Amino acid sequence: MTVLVVSRSPAAANPWAVAAIVVVPTFMEVLDTTIAVVALRYIAGGLSATVDDGEWVLTSYLAANAIILPMTGWLSAHLGRRAYFLLSIGVFTLASGLCGMATSLGQLILFRVIQGLAGGGLQPSSQGVLLDAFPREKQGTAMTLFGLAALLAPVVGPTLGGWITDQYSWRWVFLINVPVGLLAFGACYLKLRDPEYLVQEREELRKRPFSFDSVGLSLLVIVMVCWEVMLSKGQEWDWLGDPFWRIQTLALLFAVGLFGLIWWELRHRNPVVNFRPLRERNFAACCVLIFSAFAVLYGASTALPSFLQSLFGYDALTAGLVMSPAGFFALLSMPFIGLMLGRGTDARWLLAAGLLAMAAGNYWMSQMNLDISPGQVVWPRVLVVLGLSICFAPANVAAYLYTPLELRAAAVGLLSLLRNEGGSVGTSMAQTLQERRDQFHTLRLGENLDPLNPAVSFFLEQAQAQYGAGDPVALRQLALQTLENLRQQQASALAYFDCFWVFAVVGLALVLVVPLMKRSVAEKNAHVVSK
Which of 18, 84, 289, 477 is such that its CA lies 20 to 30 A from the CA of 130? Predict the structure, then answer.
């Protein structure tokens, strides 16, 4: 999104103080992408809407967020990064308060759009501040601090959202942002300043005739809205089997719009979305890795609580508590990752290790069964999140190491967009895989369930005997229903295990991307590229 820079004044010179200030808005914004998920049914019920209609609360936020993310480089260049960052915090905080006070679903969706448009500027801005605040040899430390917000927020979001909803009200899922946002705004207003090179860049822009890339913005809106609606409603509307041709139309508009957007922006002198950072090999590879890694994380984070709630009877808070230890271990590991990067460890080795850990954790979950205890779920989940925490800072170091300074703002926006969209793809992928594989396993498990199978006959006789005396026909129906319940339970479990298996394969395949990257060591005065 945007890259913020810190002044050289004594008040803002301490990079650790800067980090403490800018990480808070990032955590707040990323948290809002997941915290409302567990409260969705409560929101729909509280506003007299269906759960399907209530999903627009999530879709509208993600679509608005995705529109702004790739534009943040352009916005920060014209408004000034400090001004844009403060504007984003202020509007996001105001919109959060309005979301908490909404009296209808339409109002809530409108305020969520405003919240998403404002929140789009927070991740890139804080990431840019950290990149500028720390010297090059400590870029690993900077990205580790950013990772604490960008990685831990989606991990703790469902747990926190479930607790707030159960103990208070779904409205506090949004209202909790107001005091945090006000404190963050005040601290950033006092401490942050644009760096000299950005001030000079803005002065040069002011000397030129103002030209706004309205065509690029229009294409961007079409692309991102179609993309987010497809991901959100694809399974509900049966993807390309949609009889009303909604998904087919969205897919066509997305494909044509994306081609047009890339073609137009690469030829525009002042594009609203700058794709030129993708020409650098390391940055392009890291985009693929971050997109796919977050798809795996969000996919597993969607499938696992649903698995625990549907098959083990956990409520949202209990399922969140089973998943939350992973965040603690990720928090412990990230300082060590930053230390290793600071001591000259090649980021590629850490990337490969993290991806292998993610693959191993998902494969471990694919081997579970319905006799497991909560403790047996915790450790594979820890391994998945630990793997991404190992990947996150090295991927961000490698991504920006060879990126020219004048393209950094655009690069940060693009990578933030792909990180968020990876999460959207993973969530949609998990839902679709689970439902389709559930249907598949239900049919396969039913192939031999007929009265001619001795095992089936024996089971039905035992079930009828357990129900005691009574009408033979009614007892037979109860026994058949018991068998059907077992089939559905096993089919659903196998479907979830298939999801984890697919995510393990994706994680393993990503390791093949790492050798395509250049040596990635954050050394002092190395790889400094600027105008």
Answer: 289
